[in-house]
Amino acid sequence: MNSYFKQQNLRILVDHFRNGCKMNCIQKLGMEIEHIIVHKDTREAVTYYEDHGIGWMLEQIRHHYPHSYYEQDNLLGLSNADYSISLEPASQFEISIAPREDIRTIMKIYQSFLQIINPILHREGYELLNIGYQPKSKVNDLPLIPKKRYRFMDEYFKTSGTRGRNMMRGTAATQISIDYCSEEDFVRKYRTAYLIMPAIKFLTDNAPIFEGKPYPEHLVRTEIWDNVDPKRCGVPGNIFDHDFGFHAYAEYLWNMPLIMKPEDGDFIYSGDDRTSDIWGEKLISPEDVDHIVSMTFLDVRLKNYVEIRGADSMPNEYIMAYLAFIKGIFFEKEVASTLLDRYQITIKDIHEADQSLYKDGYQGKIYGVPADQFIRELLELAKGHLTNGEDKFLDPFIRLVGQKTTLAAEYQKEKLQRI
Fold this sequence. Notes:
- This protein is 44% helix and 20% strand.
- The chain contains 17 helices and 17 strands.
- Strands 1, 2, 3, 4, 5, 6, 7, 14 and 15 form a nine-stranded antiparallel beta sheet that branches. Strands 8-9 form a two-stranded antiparallel ribbon.
- Helix 1 crosses helix 9 (246-254), helix 6 (183-195) packs across helix 13 and helix 12 (316-330) packs across helix 15 (371-383).
- The longest helix is centred in the N-terminal third of the chain and has 22 residues, at 103-124.
- The radius of gyration is 21 Å and the shape is globular.
């Protein structure tokens, strides 16, 4: 590719990230919650295409929303001023809540969504689950929704790793987005998010089932994502370089296989081509930028905000705990700075912490510290930087650590008799 166009396109990406800086530093939390909808009697997933399936359900609630998203004649999304509804590849039902400062406001918006969806679920004998993996259905039995992007991704992931089908069809997550005020603030928050990522994954571990059977280890979603595509998942290799920042992240994106290329309002499959080979002598558009930044699936992703992606889908009180945890760690500069000064870690250290928790749970270690001690200290640190009673929202997490248990373990103990 002509070096002129490469440098200009890198500058476009960097400007996109720089324009995300919130100059007034009024920080907000955005949240995405993925749900799995099942038949209440069998626990099998409700698919898009079946009679009174997910596609039909969207049509039933469409009148509540001013905006609809179709691909061809298929309804795939709805939105209003507070949140949008979209579907993950195997009809996992996602709500994305617009950024807010106050946790109670976020949860009120979430409750307004539940008030719309719950009556139809009850009438049809369905249940909306906040769980990290399909509780009964196996991924080979689940069809993709009619979305071309997902079909191309599915094709690509057949050769990039061993768990692409499990990731696309089986998993459900809770993602939180946070603002950054400058490039320096981005780097601090981005590195801190990776530093605490092993603790986030373990604290929110809510995937007790894998392919219809109890999962004997911890962190099934970590095991899945580690085997989807090493080029676009996990940790970017330059995160701890001295010059890491917007340009370094743009370089990472530019050298990553893109899978597909947007063209004329549609997508064209690009396979394993590099981004630079795809665009040729063309300046990328804002729509191209949005596509490029969305085609990496790192544990922490940069758009024009920092997206923290490691948590499983969880019940409401744990969602509130997670929001409070992220707010308490990230909203005051000195908290992240303290953690980064205390733990001088490498990418290898992060992987070793993940593996220790995966194998040994609370008996494992995070950067040489016993897992329960490390997580308890993080919770105390977050609690000390929350106001307006939001520190109480952390209590469900504090209880889990105090009892040395996880949501997945509690599910196996209390609910597996239903399956």
